[in-house]
UniProtKB/TrEMBL annotation:
Domain Transcriptional repressor PaaX-like central Cas2-like, chain residue ranges per copy: 113-192
Name of the featured protein: CRISPR-associated endonuclease Cas2
InterPro entries, sorted: CRISPR_associated_Cas2 (IPR021127), PaaX-like_central (IPR048846)
Pfam families xrefs: PaaX_M
Taxonomic placement: Bacteria, Candidatus Roizmaniibacteriota
GO biological process: maintenance of CRISPR repeat elements
Coiled-coil stretches: none
Domain of life (superkingdom): Bacteria
Keyword annotations of the record: Antiviral defense, Endonuclease, Hydrolase, Magnesium, Membrane, Metal-binding, Nuclease, Transmembrane, Transmembrane helix
Transmembrane segments: 20-47
GO molecular function terms attached to this record: RNA endonuclease activity
Length: 202
């Protein structure tokens, strides 16, 4: 099989697992809550959200296989109700799940929203004695799609206050973070290029 004929539903190792976990976590976040609910998510809803987020049709049997593997690892549990499969996330506030979910939600905002020229900034000052936590926080912000403006200043072009509140909740070093909305910043060209934004006439 050539590269050009590779099937659209083939994934790198662990990629489909990440997609499924991201979708499960995002389904909770989009519900507008920052508490720890344990409500079931119907398999059909998961498949629909994956299609919406990723623009891919993934065979149901592949998603079921991933869910069964996650159940064996005690990350979630599955429940049959009639002909439907319901999924329960045991700990959706697990940092890895939250990271996947936030990245997916922020990607969706970038696709669907028009930039209004404002910058949504995260600044932090983690003590030197907690350097490892500082490094982790920087990595986390980069992984979910923020642009590093300065060493401890990160940018996103769309409103993300709830997402930052969640990071503060699950990451210990998050307590050192501040959320700021800026009408204008200097030297924003690199950030615009990073986010593929059109230049606003001066």
């Amino acid at each position: 099989m050539t590269k050009t004929s590779k099937k659209a539903d083939e994934f790198k190792h662990g990629e489909l697992r990440e997609i499924v976990l991201a979708t499960l976590g995002a389904s909770v976040l989009i519900g507008g809550t920052l508490i720890t609910p344990n409500f079931p998510i119907v398999l059909g809803s998961i498949i629909g959200m994956i299609k919406e987020f990723r623009k891919k049709d993934i065979p149901e049997k592949k998603i079921k296989r991933v869910l069964q593997n996650l159940e064996k690892k005690e990350i979630l549990s599955l429940e049959m109700k009639g002909n439907d499969v319901y999924v329960h996330l045991k700990d959706w506030l697990q940092p890895t799940i939250v990271k996947y979910s936030l990245r997916q939600i922020l990607e969706l905002k970038r696709r669907e929203r028009k930039w209004n020229g404002k910058w949504f900034m995260v600044m932090f000052d983690v003590p030197e004695s907690q350097r490892n936590k500082r490094v982790y926080l920087r990595s986390f912000l980069k992984d979910i799609g923020f642009f590093q403006y300065q060493k401890s200043v990160y940018l996103f072009p769309y409103e993300c206050e709830k997402e930052i509140a969640l990071i503060k909740k699950i990451i210990e070093s998050g307590k050192y973070m501040s959320y700021i909305i800026a009408e204008k910043i200097e030297n924003e060209k690199k950030a615009k290029i990073y986010f593929h934004l059109e230049t606003i006439p001066s």
